[in-house]
Amino acid sequence: MIEATGAQIIVKMLERQGITVVTGIPGGAILPLYDELYRSNLRHILVRHEQGGGFLAQGIARTTGEPAVCFATSGPGAMNLLTALADARSDSIPLVAITGQVNTNLIGTDAFQEADTFGLSFPITKHSVMVTSAKELLTAIPQAFKIAAEGRPGPVLIDIPRDIQLQKATFEAWPEPGVPERRAVRFRTEATDFAQLLSESADILATAFRPVLFVGGGANSTEGAAVIAQLLNVFPMPVVTTLMGIGSVRSDYTNYFGMVGMHGSVAANRAMYESDVVLVLGARFDDRATGIVNKFCPDAKIIHIDIDAAEINKILSSNRAIISDLESAVPVLTQFINELHLKESLERKSWRERLTAIKKEQEDGEEKAANGEFPDPGAFIASIPEIARSCGVDADSIIVTTDVGQHQMWAAQYYPINRPRTFLTSGSLGTMGFGLPVALGAAVANPKSRVVCFSGDGSIMMNIQELATLAELDLDVTVIVFENGALGMVRQQQDLLCEKRFSAVNFELCPDLLRIAEGFGIAAVSTSSPGWERVAFAGKGPRFVTCRIKPEEMVMPFVPAGKSNVEAMTHAPVQG
Questions:
Q1: CATH assignment of 191-361?
Q2: What is the pTM (predicted TM-score) of this model?
Q3: Three-class SS string for 404-454?
Q4: Which of 79, 446, 476, 566 falls 20 to 30 Å from 304 in CA-CA distance?
């Protein structure tokens, strides 16, 4: 027989799950677990704020596709973690969060640092549980990892009272780790219908004059990208992505027309609007992508393949719907299309050529002034891979993270992403403060890659304390902050939609971010300084870069409220 405390069970089960790194901050209600952690082989990363710990774990999970682990103590510790969990839930990121709770006899008494973590977390996690005995941990922990990674991924929280961490349990053997069935899907399309629906989908695509492949975050994996590439090799068609889908198809693919939506490319939005058939892979018709729903793809038949049955017919009705993982469905669809022995129709070829012309016209009309006192942000971002390469960095291995705001959209529009899981951004929840701690997690999980974090002088202040963690870990992360003295995205919308009534968006005090970074022990430089490139990218270790841009700079295209995506503004109005 084996006898172990709750804390010993937690540590042992994490090790058996293959976890090597955990993040968090200790506190009274989770102290027994941290005491046991001291005697374990787990590496603990001490962050400066629990939200930073949750996002650092996200950086690991987003780049590997595997569940990552974060700790927090009870009350304010757990509550600080909730934003990161909500963000993970919104973007389908697998996490396992373990929180301490006050002793079971104190629950409900308003004890010191007591909060209803289970109740607070329930609506923003995939699964949440409070264990009531040490023995329960033997099933709760493997189940948490299985749930987090299986089907549509998401965060799982286990709340553990302090006395349960100290309680002893006796059992015969350690349970097996929780292993997700990668292709387990609830309400999966029945096998008898699966092939028939995909065969009918192939026939629909074969008769299309203006087919479009619409790719979302559910396809943004190595496996997803591979089956998509095989499909496009058999049936070339225009490809557009959501923000979360960036990287699932190479940005230099001939028929890739960019991101759709409020700040999507003109060609991508036009492709969706004019399409007669849309093949949707792992996308959910988010409002930022569709704009006015009935004008998104108004005349198109929709073939929707998704792992989550709840997303089927939720926003737009499908003509054919297959509830399945893409790795199972797309190869079968590709085979059916291949068996049709299709020849390229003049209509499809002509349409693709017109979209290409629209794309080129947009690119030719954009300013490309990467130098000067106020560089063009898009051109500057597009130049980063070559700048990094000139400083000895393998630019093909760079992982990009962003905060939320104008810089996020510029990065999505201009940075050339050619691999899945290398563009990490807060999509659905849009969380400022996301970029820096996620960059740390990405660097921890990918020690051979340099991570570039694009941020703004608004977003960076949200989790700037994690520069201490960055310096302590000495990671290969380059943080690039665009400074405009304002909350740029909100300022832009107030400029365009509120007749320039700038309410609470301009900073009265702009701190010296370079000196702050240097105070944390990080090499820092402004892009206005000669030779800044080598400071930013040459050698190993963390770097911090500021780039001054005009407050009036706008992200274009921009779809105003109440307009369809094809009615986007493509140029900022003349200031005056």
A1: 3.40.50.1220
A2: 0.96
A3: CCHHHHHHHHHCCCCCCCCEECCCCCCCCCCHHHHHHHHHHHCCCCCEEEE
A4: 566
